[in-house]
Every structure is written in C-alpha cells, then in structure tokens.
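Following up on my earlier thread - several people asked me to post the actual chain instead of describing it. Fair enough. Here it is, all 99 residues.
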Amino acid sequence: MKIRESMRTDAVRRLAKMEKGGKGKATKEAGENRSDTIAISSSLDQVAQVKDAAREVPDVRMEKVAPLKEKVDKGEYHVSAEDIADKFLEHVIKHRMRN
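Reply from S.P.:
Thanks for posting it. Predicted structure:
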C-alpha cells in the first residue's frame, strides 16, 4: 500500500485533534484506566451450555444395552443372516460413496 502525503497529513490532523480534546479524546489518564474487555454473544453461551450438557451424558446408554445383554447371556438373541448381510452392504456402499 502506498502512503500518500494526504494520508499522512490526515493522520497527523486526527492525532492533533485527539490531543486537543476533540472527539476520541486520548489522555494519559484515560490510557492508564483503559482495560481490555471481551463480550461473548448469547449464541456462544448456548453452544457452551450444550457442550457441557453433552459431556454429562454417558457414552453408553445402559437402558438400551442391559436388555440386549440379558438376551445374549440367555442365548435368546438371534439376528438373521439376511439382516447382517443388509447392514454389511449398507456400510460398504456408504463407505465407497464417501471416497
């Protein structure tokens, strides 16, 4: 970016105006009391709340697993070979579509 003379003089005028107490007054006292601040929008707060709630949910839903485990232990859980083949092919097709 080329700096033109008019840009320099405009910058000098703005600084002079600030020193004289114009708009955007910059004084030594104001500079000393100034601190950095950050504002987080409410949507980011909501995202954080959802993440916290998700961390509290267990990875395994025992209410779903327990009845199936009981059937397996008793030898009462059976899946047809056709169902297994369908799921296997479904997985293969999805995997190939991604690549």
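The radius of gyration is 33 Å. That should answer part of your original question.
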